[in-house]
Automatic annotation (TrEMBL):
Protein name stated in the entry: Phosphoenolpyruvate-protein phosphotransferase
Subcellular location: Cytoplasm
Keywords of this entry: Cytoplasm, Kinase, Magnesium, Metal-binding, Phosphotransferase system, Sugar transport, Transferase, Transport
Lineage: Bacteria, Bacillati, Bacillota, Tissierellia, Tissierellales
UniProt organism field: [Clostridium] ultunense Esp
UniProt-annotated catalytic positions: H112 (tele-phosphohistidine intermediate), C425 (proton donor)
C-alpha cells in the first residue's frame, strides 16, 4: 500500500524530473523525508511506523540496484535471530519452523516486529542495547520473553531449568486453550464471571477471541483523550452501542469519565495541583462539570436499549457523591422519557471501591448501589500511600499487602451482607496468585486484560473454595506482603 501511495510516488517523480537525479536517489530522499516526519511524532505507535517505511524503501532500493539481500527464509537450523532491528518483511518471510526467537537492539512493544512475533507466538525481546556486539554466531542462547531475560551460553543446569520451564509453559497453554467455551467454575461448584477490561470498542475482538464473559470495566476516558475536543453525545452513543451489541446481552459495565490523576485531557485545562491523585478528578470533576456528565449519561442510557449496560461511577469517596450522581442520572432519564427515547429503566448502577474509606465503610455504601467493583490499582496506592506511577518507590506498591487484602475481604463481605454482587477490575483480579484468595473471599466477578481470561478460568476450574477458605485468617494475619506471597507459593499454587 505504501508504494502505491500517490504522494510518495509523485514525490519521487517530481524529484527525478526537477532535480534530474537517478531513481534510487529519488526514492531514498523521499522516503527519508517521510521517515523523519514519522520519527518526530510523539505517539509511540505512529512513531514506529517509520520502521515500516524504512523497510519498504530498503526493499525498493535493493530491487532497483539488483543487490541480493540476506534471506531469513533460508535459515537451516533452529536459531534465535539477533539483529540491530528487524524490518517487518524480514519477520514475515522468516522461516517460522527454524526461527525460534528474536532479539533486537531497537524497537519496543508496539513495533511491528514485536506485534508479529506475538501473533506468531515466537518469544521476542526488543530494545536490548549492544546485543549484536555481545552475542556471536553460534552462541547458545536462552530467551525468556515473559520475563525479558537473555541467558548467553548458559550452564547445563540453566538449560535444564529452562527446558523444564518451556515444557510447563507449553502444557499450561494447551490447557488454557481448552478453557474456551467452558464455564468459570471451581472444583467445588462456585461459579464466577470472568470479564474483560477494555479501553475502546476495538478491544471487543480480543474479548471474543478469549471467550470473555462480559466487560467488567470500559474505561471511557480514552474516548476523551483520543480527541482534541469533548466527544459529542452521538459519538459516545455509537461507541457504547457497538460494544453493547457485540457483547450480545452479556454485561457491559461502562465507567463514567475518570480523568485526572495520571490521565490528563489537555482541552479541559485542568488546574495544576500539588497532589493530582487526591485532587479534582473523576466523579469530583463530573459533579462540577455537569454538562460533561449529563452528555455522557444520556449517551450511556440511550445505548442501554441495545444491550446489557451497567453504569459505574469512579473514585467515589462519599455517600453524597453517589446520591448526587444518581440524582443527575434520574434527571437525564426523565429528559429521555419526555423525548420518548428508549433506555433500560432498570439499569444497574455501581461504584468503584478504590478509596480505603469506602472499603472500611462499605456496609453503608452497599445500601446505595447495585454493585461494587474493587479498583485495586488505586486502592493499593491510597492504602499504602504509594504513588502507583513512581518508579523510585515502586518496591512499596504491592498487591499482596495484608492491609489491602483485609480491605478487599471486608468490601466483599459487606457487599454480600447488603445483597449486592462484588467484582474487581484492578490488575489484581488477573493475578494468578491472588485469584484463589479472591475466590475464597467470595468475589463474584473478575475483570482483567482479555489475554488473561483463559488462564484465570483455568485457575478457577482447578481450585476449590472450601480448601482455601480456612487459610484466609492465617494469611490476613501475616506481617508482610512478602510473607503472603510466600505462603501462597508454598500452600496454594503448586
Ligand atoms: C483501579 O484503580 O483499580 C482501576 C481499575 O481504575 P484505573 O486503573 O483506571 O484507575
Ligand atoms: Mg482507578
Amino acid at each position: 500500500m505504501m508504494i502505491e501511495d500517490p504522494e510518495f510516488n509523485d514525490g519521487i517523480r517530481a524529484k527525478i524530473k526537477e532535480e534530474r537525479v537517478n531513481v534510487e536517489w529519488a526514492v531514498k530522499e523521499v522516503a527519508d523525508h517521510y521517515i523523519s516526519l514519522f520519527s518526530n511524532i510523539e505517539d509511540e505507535y505512529l512513531k514506529e511506523r517509520a520502521l515500516d517505511l524504512k523497510d519498504v524503501s530498503k526493499r525498493l532500493l535493493r530491487i532497483l540496484s539488483g543487490v541480493e539481500g540476506t534471506d531469513l527464509r533460508s535459515i537451516k537450523e533452529e536459531s534465535i535471530i539477533v539483529a540491530e532491528d528487524l524490518i517487518p518483511s524480514d519477520t514475515a518471510q522468516m522461516n517460522k519452523e527454524k526461527a525460534i526467537g528474536i532479539v533486537t537492539e531497537l524497537g519496543g512493544k508496539t513495533s511491528h516486529t514485536s506485534i508479529m512475533a506475538r501473533t506468531l507466538e515466537i518469544p521476542a525481546i526488543a530494545g536490548v542495547k549492544d546485543i549484536t556486539q555481545i552475542a556471536k554466531n553460534g552462541d547458545f542462547m536462552i530467551i525468556d520473553g515473559g520475563e525479558g531475560l537473555i541467558l548467553l551460553n548458559p550452564s547445563e543446569e540453566e538449560i535444564k531449568k529452562y527446558e523444564k520451564k518451556k515444557k510447563e509453559y507449553e502444557a499450561f497453554k494447551m490447557k488454557t486453550r481448552e478453557m474456551k467455551g467452558k464455564e468459570s467454575i471451581s472444583k467445588d461448584g462456585i461459579k464466577v464471571e470472568i470479564a474483560a477490561n477494555i479501553g475502546t470498542p476495538k478491544d471487543v475482538d480480543k474479548i471474543i477471541e478469549n471467550d470473555g464473559e462480559g466487560v467488567g470495566l470500559y474505561r471511557t476516558e480514552f474516548l476523551y483523550m483520543d480527541s482534541d475536543k469533548l466527544p459529542t453525545e452521538e459519538e459516545q452513543f455509537e461507541s457504547y452501542k457497538i460494544v453493547a451489541e457485540r457483547l450480545e446481552g452479556k454485561p457491559v459495565i461502562i465507567r463514567t469519565l475518570d480523568v485526572g490523576g495520571d490521565k490528563d485531557i489537555p482541552y479541559l485545562n485542568l488546574p495544576e495541583e500539588m497532589n493530582p491523585f487526591l485532587g479534582y478528578r473523576a466523579i469530583r470533576l463530573c459533579l462540577d462539570r455537569v454538562d460533561i456528565f449529563e452528555t455522557q449519561l444520556r449517551a450511556l442510557l440511550r445505548a442501554s436499549a441495545f444491550g446489557n449496560i451497567k453504569i459505574m461511577f469512579p473514585m467515589i469517596s462519599s455517600i453524597k457523591e453517589i446520591r448526587d450522581a444518581k440524582k443527575i442520572l434520574e434527571e437525564v432519564k426523565e429528559e429521555l422519557r419526555k423525548e420518548n427515547i428508549p433506555f433500560n429503566e432498570d439499569i444497574e448502577v455501581g461504584i468503584m471501591v478504590e478509596i480505603p474509606s469506602v472499603a472500611v465503610h462499605s456496609d453503608i455504601f452497599a445500601k446505595e448501589v447495585d454493585f461494587f467493583s474493587i479498583g485495586t490499582n488505586d486502592l493499593i496506592q491510597y492504602t499504602l500511600a504509594v504513588d502507583r506511577g513512581n518508579q523510585d518507590i515502586s518496591y512499596l506498591y504491592n498487591q499482596y499487602h495484608p492491609a489491602v487484602l483485609k480491605l478487599i475481604k471486608m468490601t466483599i463481605e459487606n457487599g454480600h451482607k447488603a445483597g449486592i454482587w462484588v467484582g474487581m477490575c484492578g490488575e489484581a483480579a488477573g493475578d494468578e496468585k491472588l485469584i484463589p484468595l479472591l475466590l475464597a473471599m467470595g468475589l463474584d466477578e473478575f475483570s482483567m486484560n482479555p489475554s488473561s481470561i483463559l488462564k484465570a478460568r483455568y485457575i478457577i476450574n482447578n481450585i476449590s473454595k472450601k480448601e482455601i477458605e480456612p487459610m484466609l485468617d492465617e494469611i490476613l494475619s501475616l506481617p508482610t506482603a512478602e510473607d503472603v506471597e510466600k505462603f501462597i507459593d508454598e500452600n496454594i499454587i503448586s
